[in-house]
């Protein structure tokens, strides 16, 4: 096996372990997929990996149901740095306006990765939210959604944002979607990361 394929398999294993260990509540092993300065961006949370693990664990222990499913993956490697894009769905179950519903959001995990001391780890995870939908668990029921509030959220994750905001979360209103300037800027940041620029520079908004 070539060194390139070995590195790609290691990265794929890392990304898959993220989903398996996080959803299973295996917090000690989940911490190992991150570097110490790792950061997580999500609709409902933006902060350090340690903070993300803490609030995820608290939610898990309270019965918060958020699951992740992974699909195909594309990986770009430049020496000890990589960008991995992984097709995914986020599935969250909760009460929406009094009706238990599943919200399924389809998109990609866009990961900034680095190999340090022989180990790949996540430096930054920025999901891309492409489309979503809401389904009542009991098909004989349907939530009476507030159309104005629903349409106030970005189209790629508006049902997810509706559910999460109803649970009291402050939802970030400017996450990248399938197309548009936000996702184009994310791609620019990814290229900067692969060119060896510091993460702060890679994340600097365009001038």
Task: Characterise the protein shown here.
By secondary structure, this protein is α+β, with helices and mostly antiparallel strands. It has helices at residues 3-24, 27-31, 49-61, 147-150, 158-166, 181-194, 199-202; strands at 34-41, 46-48, 65-78, 81-96, 99-116, 119-136. A hairpin with a 2-residue loop joins β4 (81-96) and β5.
Short structural description:
34% of the residues lie in helices and 37% in strands. It has 207 residues and is of the alpha+beta class. A 6-stranded mixed β-sheet has the order 2-1-6-5-4-3.
> How far is it from the N-terminal to the C-terminal residue, by CA?
43 Å
Percent of residues in helices comes to 25-40%
Largest sheet: 6 strands, mixed
- Across the major sheet, the strand order is 2-1-6-5-4-3
Average of per-residue pLDDT values: 94
Give the overall silhouette: globular
Rg over CA atoms: 18 Å
Outline the low-pLDDT stretches. none
The count of β-strands is 6
State the order of secondary-structure elements, H for helix, E for strand: HHEEHEEEEHHHH
Strand content: 35-45%
The number of helices is: 7
Structural class determined from secondary elements: alpha+beta
Keywords:
single chain; 207 residues; globular; alpha+beta
Annotate the secondary structure layout.
Layout: H1 3-24, H2 27-31, E1 34-41, E2 46-48, H3 49-61, E3 65-78, E4 81-96, E5 99-116, E6 119-136, H4 147-150, H5 158-166, H6 181-194, H7 199-202
Parallel strand pairs: 1-6
Antiparallel strand pairs: 1-2, 3-4, 4-5, 5-6
């Amino acid at each position: 096996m070539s060194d390139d394929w070995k590195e790609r398999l290691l990265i794929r294993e890392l990304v898959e372990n993220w989903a398996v260990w996080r959803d299973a509540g295996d917090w000690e092993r989940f911490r190992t997929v991150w570097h110490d300065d790792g950061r997580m961006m999500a609709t409902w949370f933006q902060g350090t990996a340690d903070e993300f693990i803490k609030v995820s664990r608290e939610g898990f222990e309270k019965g918060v149901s958020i699951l992740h499913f992974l699909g195909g993956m594309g990986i770009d490697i430049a020496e000890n740095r990589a960008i991995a894009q992984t097709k995914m769905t986020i599935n969250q179950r909760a009460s929406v306006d009094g009706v238990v519903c599943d919200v399924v959001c389809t998109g990609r995990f866009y990961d900034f990765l680095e190999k340090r001391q022989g180990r790949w780890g996540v430096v930054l995870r920025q999901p891309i939210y492409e489309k979503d939908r809401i389904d009542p668990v009991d098909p004989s029921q349907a939530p009476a959604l507030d159309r104005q509030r629903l349409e106030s959220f970005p189209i790629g994750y508006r049902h997810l944002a509706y559910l999460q905001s109803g649970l009291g979360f402050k939802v970030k209103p400017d996450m990248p979607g399938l197309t548009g300037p936000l996702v184009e800027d994310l791609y620019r940041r990814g290229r900067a990361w692969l060119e060896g620029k510091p993460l702060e520079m890679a994340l600097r908004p365009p001038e």
